[in-house]
Design brief:
Helix content is about 55%, strand content about 10%. With about 375 residues, it is α/β, with parallel strands linked by helices. It has a 7-stranded mixed β-sheet with strand order 1-2-7-6-5-3-4, with helices on both faces. The model has no long low-confidence stretch (mean pLDDT about 85).
């Protein structure tokens, strides 16, 4: 098909083309049975176009419209209504629909395709966290026109993820420097940061198509990451606590707050004068405010030994100026102005959703489930006054 861009990313074939390409990508053996199309109510018009393209090619279609719920378990119950005679699945939407399709495809041992409706998620090539060894989509398709017409808050969510990557790269570099394992590379922390950022960067002047490709490549690289830093932990806590906005929006807010805090924390150098943290209080608040299970949090608890604590403090003292220099080079102050202006209200919704006290309290709590620099700040007691 003309005007089609293609790239093999990991084990997935990714196409930027038109909706009409969808039927041509379904295996012939799957066309012999029913093809299920799964979507949320808010993308029903786009799903209708996908279904129409399938029917024009005489493909038997089973339609499954999912009612949005605050609980992933409730949505999984809904997708279980898809009958067993469906031998191929197409998810129309973004990250949440992908999770449901991954779950159903894994349980029923079938393949599935994602038709992405907005450049808003870097989890399209993730498998569902509900199952071990869950499958990922065989194909991902996006229509250029659909991406360009995506709601502005979804586009802002995608850019929120993209703009957060430099700070996440900073967190990974610090964690490697603080860790005891040998990274296999003899390089400075500044060079390590430059290498990380070079592989995960996109200019905000680019359009939705470039953002889509960036998020797809990022999705594949993130599958190989098992480090949970402050940005990811903070984003998770805000999602579970507020549940009103998209994950990428929370990710940028988390990055901006942490970027400011890390600079203040590193400049202060007062970690050895603080009282130890109240871990039980933090975990109980995470349970009541965010729904995280207390027993699971107990299993994740990680007490620093005295030697480990002073080892980290020594390394931070040694690299303090380097780390502050890297943080200053990220410049999220400039990025946040451009990001807010993606919205019709120039980001006024932020004032309606958060207070400074709430953000600082969430940041302090997520230090309990975070590794790297924020986890150390929490262990030092530097976050206790914010709770």
């Amino acid at each position: 098909m003309e005007n089609t861009d293609y790239e093999r990313i990991g084990t997935t074939d990714v196409y930027l083309s038109q909706t009409e390409i969808v039927p041509t990508l379904i295996p012939d053996e799957a066309k012999a049975g029913h093809v299920g199309v799964v979507y949320y109510e808010d993308v029903k018009d786009i799903a209708f176009d996908v279904i129409s393209a399938l029917k024009r090619e005489k493909v038997l279609v089973y339609e499954c419209k999912i009612a949005k719920s605050e609980s992933e378990d409730d949505e999984i119950k809904q997708i279980k209504s898809v009958p067993e005679y469906v031998r191929y699945l197409i998810g129309v939407g973004c990250g949440r629909i992908n999770m449901l399709c991954s779950y159903f495809a894994t349980v029923n041992a079938i393949d599935y395709m994602m038709f992405v409706t907005a450049p808003s998620s870097e989890r399209i090539l993730y498998s569902t966290p509900k199952l071990k060894e869950a499958c990922c989509p065989k194909c991902v398709v996006a229509d250029r026109k659909v991406l360009d017409l995506a709601p502005k808050d979804l586009i802002a969510a995608g850019w929120g993820i993209a703009l957060s990557q430099p700070l996440k790269a900073f967190e990974r570099c610090v964690a490697k420097k603080l860790g005891t394992e040998n990274s296999g590379r003899a390089e400075s922390i500044a060079d390590s940061f430059k290498r990380e950022v070079a592989s995960n960067s996109v200019q905000m002047t680019h359009g939705t198509a470039e953002l889509f490709w960036f998020l797809m490549r990022l999705s594949d690289s993130n599958r190989k990451q098992n480090f949970v830093g402050g940005v990811d932990a903070f984003c998770e806590v805000m999602q579970k606590n507020h549940k009103l906005r998209h994950r990428g929006e929370y990710m940028f807010v988390a990055s901006y707050v942490l970027w400011a805090y890390y600079r203040l924390f590193l400049k202060s150098g007062c970690e050895d004068t603080l009282l130890p943290p109240d871990k039980m209080k933090s975990m109980k608040l995470l349970e009541t405010k965010c729904g995280l299970e207390f027993n699971l949090l107990l299993k994740r608890i990680d007490f620093l030994t005295v030697n480990g604590y002073f080892r980290i403090k020594y390394i931070l003292d040694e690299y303090r100026d380097d780390l502050i220099g890297i943080l200053n080079s990220i410049d999220l102050e400039k990025s946040q102005r451009r990001w807010r202006r993606l919205y019709e209200d120039a980001g006024f919704w932020l004032k309606e959703n958060f207070t400074t006290k709430e953000l600082l309290s969430s940041m302090a709590l997520c230090g309990e489930i975070s590794g790297g620099l924020l986890g150390y700040a929490k262990a030092s007691g530097a976050l206790e006054d914010y709770i």
